[in-house]
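Quick one: structure tokens for this chain, please?
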Amino acid sequence: MNRYQPSGQDLEPTPQARAILLTSRIIVGSFGIGIAIFLIVSIMNGPTLHLPSGLVSGGIDTVMIPLSAVMLLSTPGIGLVLRSALLRPLRTRAQSDDPPSEEDILVRFQSWTVIRSALIEAPGLLAICACFLTGNVIGLAIGAVAILFLLFNIPTRGRLNAFTRDALGTL
């Protein structure tokens, strides 16, 4: 089993790391495509789109849209807390005589990527669902923002290297 060696340099990804990056990209892309397809279906098959005249329309969108907005805006903070929780055991092991293996780091990186993406997808789908049911166009806007969040969270080699450096406690 390969072990990552602490160093200040970015690490060249191994075949296993490249496979995890590709799989993670496919998963994140699938989340984004799912939101986009539901957004298109909502536009084509939902009620006539409208912008509510007041802050409170009295429908189900009164709850669903603010809830989805709060959920979406809280995902970066939740993602950082989750990342820290996933890194803590790896850092502890890195300081011991038994440093974490490449597989340990990659599994946690992929878990962080998938969970963070699901946290972005859920409010996007909830907001689009509100739009589909009520025609409130704000739901589409929140769904589009969720797609943008996913695009900015696509796993990259740099993110994997940063995660690895943080896991090993190197600069």
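Residues 1-8 have pLDDT under 50 and may be disordered.
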